[in-house]
Amino acid sequence: MEEKIAIVFGTRPEIIKLTPVIKHCRNEGIPFFTVHSGQHYSYEMDRIFFEQLGLKRPDYQLSVKSKAPYMQGQHTGKMMEAIEKILLKEKPTNVLAEGDTNTVLATALVTAKIATVKQLVDFSTKFGHVEACLRSYDKTMPEEMNRIIADHISDYLFAPTKDAKQNALKEGLSEEKIFVTGNTIVDALKMVEGKIEDVNSLKKMELEEKNYALLTLHRQENVDVKEKLQSIIKGVSGFCKKAGIEAIWPMHPRAKKMLEQYNITVPEKIRVVKPLGFFEFLSLEKNAAIALTDSGGVQEESCIFGTKCVTLRENTERPETVAIGANVVAGWQENGIVEKATEMLEGKTEWKQPFGDGKAGEKIVKILIKGK
């Protein structure tokens, strides 16, 4: 059976992190097709990234939207039904998805189910989980459950670090299917390095290098809970007052919706801006004095750039960043954020990033093709 890879994504980080895989397939002439679940579907959160990363529009564009945060089963089930139809039509030999979203879970489940009826569908396929084996050890997070389930039904686990591999081994997963490849975000940042400098976001926003903070918030457990959302933005504001800097907040649609719903006013020292394109955001991130975030991707990117990071959660699935001094877990309470962010700003300034050599995308594709 001729090799054909299905590459499935649904959110902005997944588009970015799968770009190195897509480009390696394209450059090597390896047959592939792309599926977008539609989990992010606005221009700012989605389409602009295809344009800036030099990708063609997805071969299959779905529009599977969540009706409510608590309807995880319905969201995942709708994706499964839609993705299954595409896989049965295209008959790929391998299916790839990246990260910890409902898109990843739906894709992993569908691929595993198809593999059980290969005698009926006339093809055999395997699932590869990119950025596998991460653990926050907080099962109240939907992302953690997605990671665990996807990993346990994967045929290939592409772990970004040796520490991630150890997580999987502790859970009894077979070492034969775990491959430490590095993180494809390193590949992606290397690919666009020159373009980051060209956008000049600082000049457009009248900012000085290393004299502002970057804030991002989008996690369900933070923005959907009024007490936490209020406490976090008060903590960020309090830290910025103490440090004498301003925080720039490219506001995620989810956060915007909840601020309006809860009638919360953004406090002083926080400047809200619309969601940014990939290059614009990276330019701000690279030149910030500090990043305050609940995003796993921002923890990685800031570490690679040498930008200090404060995680606005009770835990992190990127403990490597904390171990090397690039990141600190501050939680969501106001006083803790002020204290930890102040300590971080005044602390260590250099570290060696732990996410690989920038060839993860190439390694992943080679492993799939070899079938090892």
Description of the molecule:
The protein is an alpha/beta fold and 372 residues long. It folds into two domains: 5-183 and 357-370, 3-Layer(aba) Sandwich (Rossmann fold); 201-346, Rossmann fold, CATH 3.40.50.2000. It contains 18 helices and 13 strands. It has helices at 12-28, 43-53, 72-90, 102-115, 118-121, 142-152, 162-170, 184-191, 193-199, 201-205, 220-223, 226-243, 253-262, 278-287, 296-305, 319-323, 334-346, 360-370, and strands at residues 5-9, 32-36, 60-61, 94-98, 126-130, 156-159, 178-180, 212-216, 246-250, 270-273, 290-293, 308-311, 327-329. The strands form two sheets. Strands 3-2-1-4-5-6-7 form a seven-stranded parallel beta sheet, sandwiched between helices. Strands 10-9-8-11-12-13 form a six-stranded parallel beta sheet, sandwiched between helices. Strand 9, helix 13 and strand 10 form a beta-alpha-beta unit. It is globular, with a radius of gyration of 20 Å. The chain starts with a strand and ends with a helix. 48% of the residues are buried. The model has no long low-confidence stretch (mean pLDDT 93).
